[in-house]
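Internal QA ticket QA-208
Title: Verify multi-chain structure generation after dependency bump
Assignee: T.L.

Test input:
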Amino acid sequence: MGNSSLQIIADNVSVIASPTTWIEGGAIQQLQTTAKLPGMRRVVGMPDLHPGRGYPVGAAFFSIGRFYPALIGGDIGCGMRFLKTDLTIGKLSLDKLVKRLGNIDAPLTEHSDFWQERVDAYQMRDTGFERSLGSIGGGNHFAELQQFDEIYDRAVFDSHALDRQQVMLLVHSGSRGFGGQILRQHIDHFGHVGLLAGSSAAAAYWSQHARALQYAEANRSLIAERICANLSTTADVVVDVHHNFLSEVCIDGEHGFLHRKGATPADPGLLIIPGSRGDYSYLVQALDTEYSSISLFSLAHGAGRKWMRSECEPRLSKRFTATQLSRTALNSRVVCHDKALIFEEAPEAYKPIDTVIHSLLEAGLIRLVAKLKPLVSYKTSGACCV
DNA sequence: ATGTTC
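Actual output:
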């Protein structure tokens, strides 16, 4: 059966992307280089594939006999938490939402006894990074209030007790400095050669990796709690998934290691694939098809960068002021008081989400459930500018 | 990505 969204690059290298999806040549090159690592069986790029530091982002890698912590990267456990709040969109003004959201950057541990207790509940003091819990971080991390724009599958939508009028909250963050420290210590000791399955070093990484996944989820949970408190609402988790992590799996009869780097696991239930801050997000379900194995049971984790961070400000500052970039084409608000991030995370720097979603649809990997539009995208209230 | 990099 033909599939125009399946690009076979080499024996064990493929990319899930329609011909109209922008894929940087350098990212394909990184994918091919990674495919040649000892023990690597198969690699696949998602439609949001883009170049990373040595290894591509938006990809999954399946290896036998050894695994590669560097492929997971430093933000072990980075992922998305999607919640439905008790707020209804009816009489909300965006300016009021922004004001009530306030500043959620300061360490939660210094906020109050109440928050210290909430943080304590997650038992992360031994990580040494307790101070970062409950704050978003930098880069592409964000928290976004959204509203439903279109429902495609009413039955699935209803079965998850969703309501078109409810404000949704999406939190994208990870293990902050903790995961980074784990990777750095690993690279200092072992470089990039990977770890042999069953070795004591492998066992040590597994336990650190597991702890980083816990930290990342605790972080997303505390960010959501904090936002809900500021908005005087509560929220129920619809889905929380990591998109940077390692797992042991059996694929086509072979037992091995599945590395996901910016790749959402195609698990049952609802999954969220966000666009840039000026674009829609899609609520989807993964489908089990003949291409599931080729796609290494993974989906895109977002739109994917189109431009390198360093080229954003030069390209955009001529066309837009930072203040103009605090509103988007979908009329949402952007809270980002970091001059560099305003440009680096501009919608123009990302692929259009529709090309990414179209690729996954054409490959038969997803079913659409709903589309959401951004209301407020929160990056940082930190120092500087605007 | 990062209580910010050899």
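Spot checks passed. The first helix of chain A runs from residue 25 to 35.
Status: verified.
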